[in-house]
Automatic annotation (TrEMBL):
Family of the protein in this entry: Belongs to the glycosyltransferase 2 family.
Protein name listed in UniProt: Polyprenol monophosphomannose synthase
All copies of domain Glycosyltransferase 2-like, residue ranges: 6-172
Signal peptide: none
Alphabetical UniProt keywords: Glycosyltransferase, Transferase
Pfam families: Glycos_transf_2
Lineage of the organism: Bacteria, Pseudomonadati, Bacteroidota, Flavobacteriia, Flavobacteriales
GO BP: any one term: glycolipid biosynthetic process
CC per GO annotation: membrane
GO molecular function: dolichyl-phosphate beta-D-mannosyltransferase activity
Amino acid sequence: MKDTLVIIPTYNERENVELIVRAVLDTYLEAHVLIVDDNSPDGTAQIVEGLQVDYEARLHLEKRAKKDGLGTAYIHGFKWALQRSYEYIFEMDADFSHDPADLELLHEACHDLGADLSIGSRYVQGVNVVNWPMSRVLLSYVASKYVRLITRMEIHDTTAGFKCYRASLLKRFDLDKIKFVGYAFQIEMKFKSYLLEAKIVEVPVIFTDRSRGVSKMSTGIIHEAVTGILRMKFKSLLGKLEI
């Protein structure tokens, strides 16, 4: 996994951050990790700084002034990665809902199968979710079906946040034109990749709910996704969606 960067946004993840960093970097000895921390009051960034002694040039930290949304954290990470010529750029959560062992599968989809974007998919082969209450499983599954219906994308897990991009695809975006900051960001990036006719491959993975720390999901994030997708699709039909 040469030329690979795994971007992990954090906010109050002191219970997970050392474990996830070591799980990635001790398994993939050529990969790098970038933590984008939104000024976590629990000391997450300080833990990462301590770990940098162990991992030298492989563990990087970008500290932002405030909690400013998942989407802007990833955009910050994308720009940082492109400036440093990484070829394979991952999105990954800090809470082990995304299994580090699956990074290799997403990398292979891009490196060996020629995907521009590979997606760790919960729904491409049934429903592969562990430890979620049924209400949340249904919400997530129906949301993905809703987005697929509106956008017409042939993607089963339209809200997935475990992904690998080729740098060549990210360079085709105007990253300053990405509008959404919550989980709708994940849908926007997939939809714009689809409009760019990128090769998108879904890789089946098992999603496991966090066992440590607190979820960042909120009703505002859900509302942004539901209403934002309609606006985005409407703009695309009018030829006014900026990519």
